[in-house]
Amino acid sequence: MSAASVPPFRPSGAQLGLVAANFLMWGGFFAVIPLVTVHFVGGLGWTAASVGLVLGLRQLTQQGLTVFGGAWADRIGAKPLILAGCVLRTLGFAGMAYSGTFPALLATALLAGVGGGLFDAPKSAAITAVTRPEHRTRMFSLTSMSGNLGMVSGPLLGAALLPLGFRTAGLVAASAYLVALAVLGLTLPHLRPEHPRAGGLGGLARAARDLRFRRFTLVLIGYFLLSTQINVAVTLKAIALAGPGATGPLYGVSAGLSVLLQYPLLRLVERRVRTRVALVGAVLLVAAALGLMAFATSFAALLGCVALYSLGTMIVYPTQQTLTARLAPPELLGSYFGFSAISLGVGGAVGSVLGGALVDVGARLHFTALPWLTLFVVGLVTALGLRWALRDVPRAQTVPRN
């Protein structure tokens, strides 16, 4: 078969449905979650610690269940779990809108977390299943772009709705998941597993026993430790340089560049660089950007570093997802994507604690470069670890030329 016989990437109805639903999910999430602290702490006078506990437990619930959500998808198919997750997230956000006590807020936040745990890994498995191998990097790039667009538009929508009350914002956010439910219900086929007995806990066990994939997942913890710094150390530095209003431009640059550049950048990288080389290079770029923040003495310089940081992160997600799909047996896509969530859960949790701690220690020692130099070293070690972990990963199947 010649290279010309490979059809061009023209998204199908199922693929467009997944991209649209991803936008709705991220937009709905960011329309209400940033307002939880504003409403319950600023409006109702709750302690920041109590609201932080609720949000932390929600995140822990979602990340913990994501591991099992992928494994269940290998048994019953991705679509039922994605739809069930949308239903639970709808109920959770609608419940949060009416919560007036700590137990009620905690229960509804956990319900929303369970919903996320059900659809996260199955969504990646569904993207893989409905996309040809040679088009997966671009498809994951499109879904990432739609998520970033949701991250940009969600807070704007939430801020616009805030004068109408937190309840209105919560109900609008919940309705976004209802629309996503309808879109996926109409467009996503029910992909019945060919080997349903291979999934479940047995599928997770196989992913854990896969030495190559286990190495890949564990090394990626280092990257997710870096990626969470946009919400921790980078945000703290932005506020120190330009005040609380700096967070808007900070996230605008980060998410806006991803919306504008991710797809064309991925196409360029895809044509010229092998996937695993692109992943290692992107992690090095993220590490370099964080290291350079040690020398950023103005907000404009910091935004320049954030732009460099964003270029790296927008390459990592689709290449990491593509490599996960390449390493996973076809009958265990959900289990492998679920197992890979361990890196995000652990790296995100450790990064949130470590980033703030490094900033505090650096300030006490009058060595403000400490967090950035430390993160740079973590990035270098992670890049070297990825090169080692992926050293025997086969190339993607290529089409021979005549």
Automatic annotation (TrEMBL):
| Sequence intervals crossing the membrane | 12-33, 104-121, 142-162, 168-188, 216-242, 248-266, 278-311, 336-358, 370-390
What are the record keywords, sorted?
Cell membrane, Membrane, Transmembrane, Transmembrane helix, Transport
Q: Which Pfam families match?
A: MFS_1
SUPFAM superfamilies, alphabetically? MFS general substrate transporter
Q: Tell me which residues make up the Major facilitator superfamily (MFS) profile domain.
A: 15-397
The record describes its membrane topology as:
Multi-pass membrane protein
Subcellular location, principal? membrane
List the subcellular locations: Cell membrane
Q: Which PROSITE patterns match?
A: MFS (PS50850)
Task: Check the record and name the InterPro entries matching this protein.
Answer: MFS (IPR011701), MFS_dom (IPR020846), MFS_trans_sf (IPR036259), MFS_Transporters (IPR050171)
Quote the protein name from its UniProt record. Answer: MFS transporter
Biological source species: Deinococcus hohokamensis
